[in-house]
Amino acid sequence: MGARCSNLCFCLWPSNIKSHVLYTSDIEKWAENEQLNLPAFREYSLEELKAATSSFSIDNIVSEHGEKAPNVVFKGQLAGNGRWIAIKRFHSSAWPDSRQFLDEAKAVGQLRSKRLANLLGCCCEGDERLLVAEFMRHETLSKHLFHWDNQPLKWAMRLRVALYLAQALDYCSSKGRELYHDLNSYRVLFDQDCDPRISCFGLMKNSRDGKSYSTNLAFTPPEYLKTGKVTPESVVYSFGALLLDLLSGKHIPPSHALDLIRGKNFLMLIDSCLEGHFSNDDGTELVQLASRCLQHEPHDRPNVKSLLTSLTSLQKEKDAPSNVLMSIAHETTSPSQVPLTPLGEACSRLDLTAIHEILEKVGYKEDEGIANELSFQMWANQIQETLNSRKSGDSAFRDKNFTTAIKCYTEFLEGGNVKSPTVLARRSLCYLMSDKPQEALADAMQAQVQFSNWPTAFYLQAAALNTLGMDSDARETLKDGSSLDFRRMRQ
């Protein structure tokens, strides 16, 4: 426990800031494992993104801006691989030149870092302009700083946020992307491990000719108000405003904060929740660093490398995982407090034999909704041959002849107008048994399309995602399945 913040004595002259030696290995340590399991940037069709978001349902909106910048971000899940994504949908007039939008998106899409919520692709059809990025599960810095429920963000975690952001900006600068538009606490996101990242959306302007800052003008760099242009020094100014957020737990206008610092009323800046949790030196240095970033003249502000040097030396509890610092349980066990059904349990531990036994026992109970349609077609003698294919598939499935079962079930699905969710589920398992998880995932997702509230479809998706190594997505999908099971039990 450090000295109480009431004993802080701040000196604001830059010459009094400690000089820290930052070894190259310290800077590069975080970058050594930059090989991420991410696909190459690509263009998505509008239909793909509609399917992922239930036609851009309002239930899938995760953030939206006001009338001045009416761009909306949606949460979605891709049908092809089950990956969760964030989709930014621009206003129709934002980027009239489709080629310019595509070129800009492709340039940002070349970046790949574990300090970014990386850009996976874009969509440019008609008037639609959309960006597709990694989805971050644990919300924004704004939520954890200003609207927390259980406990405030710890001092060590606030320092880590600042460092990781500096690392992100340094990485972007090294790749020729020095400009970040409207850096603020809403642009900082927490991934499945609770590590902070910055949104790739800020690497593109809100529009081709529109303003780069959508927040209150009290938080924008002074030079931007004069020229309307973002410079690397403008980004550092916004970084300083973020340091104030981290210090105070409030969104204080920089001019007001600087007045408090100059008047030695800096204690009013410090989040009262932090009292006693940091040392005099640490508090002094962070306030000094923020004040340097917020200098009126751009050339008086530090560069990103300097920020990185100062923040590296301030880090606390370096070995503690971010989720521990944030008191958020890591999703390594059952993803829900609701007990999983035997099928859910089998899928969670990838027990394919148990899954087979359960699907065989349940039979076609979930297909009752399409039974009448099948009966009519059988009466009309329209699908007898197709139905025989299903019977042959069932026989092969029972005998664990999965190759034959796949062949017969495929004939059934392609030969009739009725899509059976049970057949899709059975073929999904057959694909898993045949070491074809991508095909298994596609069938499980198609079963969900046919029967949207069927837990089995979600459980099989989770099993396929697990096999593909997409553990966090698998846990989330398993949670969805268990929630549906719980609702059924309550009905």
From TrEMBL:
<dbReference type="InterPro" id="IPR011990">
    <property type="entry name" value="TPR-like_helical_dom_sf"/>
</dbReference>
<dbReference type="GO" id="GO:0005886">
    <property type="term" value="C:plasma membrane"/>
</dbReference>
<comment type="similarity">
    <text>Belongs to the protein kinase superfamily. Ser/Thr protein kinase family.</text>
</comment>
<dbReference type="Pfam" id="PF07714">
    <property type="entry name" value="PK_Tyr_Ser-Thr"/>
</dbReference>
<keyword id="KW-0067">ATP-binding</keyword>
<keyword id="KW-0472">Membrane</keyword>
<dbReference type="InterPro" id="IPR058209">
    <property type="entry name" value="TPR_BSK1_C"/>
</dbReference>
<keyword id="KW-0808">Transferase</keyword>
<dbReference type="GO" id="GO:0005524">
    <property type="term" value="F:ATP binding"/>
</dbReference>
<dbReference type="GO" id="GO:0009742">
    <property type="term" value="P:brassinosteroid mediated signaling pathway"/>
</dbReference>
<protein>
    <recommendedName>
        <fullName>non-specific serine/threonine protein kinase</fullName>
        <ecNumber>2.7.11.1</ecNumber>
    </recommendedName>
</protein>
<dbReference type="InterPro" id="IPR011009">
    <property type="entry name" value="Kinase-like_dom_sf"/>
</dbReference>
<keyword id="KW-0519">Myristate</keyword>
<dbReference type="Pfam" id="PF25575">
    <property type="entry name" value="TPR_BSK1_C"/>
</dbReference>
<keyword id="KW-0449">Lipoprotein</keyword>
<feature type="domain" description="Protein kinase">
    <location>
        <begin position="59"/>
        <end position="314"/>
    </location>
</feature>
<keyword id="KW-0723">Serine/threonine-protein kinase</keyword>
<dbReference type="InterPro" id="IPR045845">
    <property type="entry name" value="BSK"/>
</dbReference>
<keyword id="KW-0418">Kinase</keyword>
<dbReference type="InterPro" id="IPR000719">
    <property type="entry name" value="Prot_kinase_dom"/>
</dbReference>
<dbReference type="InterPro" id="IPR001245">
    <property type="entry name" value="Ser-Thr/Tyr_kinase_cat_dom"/>
</dbReference>
<keyword id="KW-0547">Nucleotide-binding</keyword>
<dbReference type="GO" id="GO:0004674">
    <property type="term" value="F:protein serine/threonine kinase activity"/>
</dbReference>
<keyword id="KW-1070">Brassinosteroid signaling pathway</keyword>
<keyword id="KW-1003">Cell membrane</keyword>
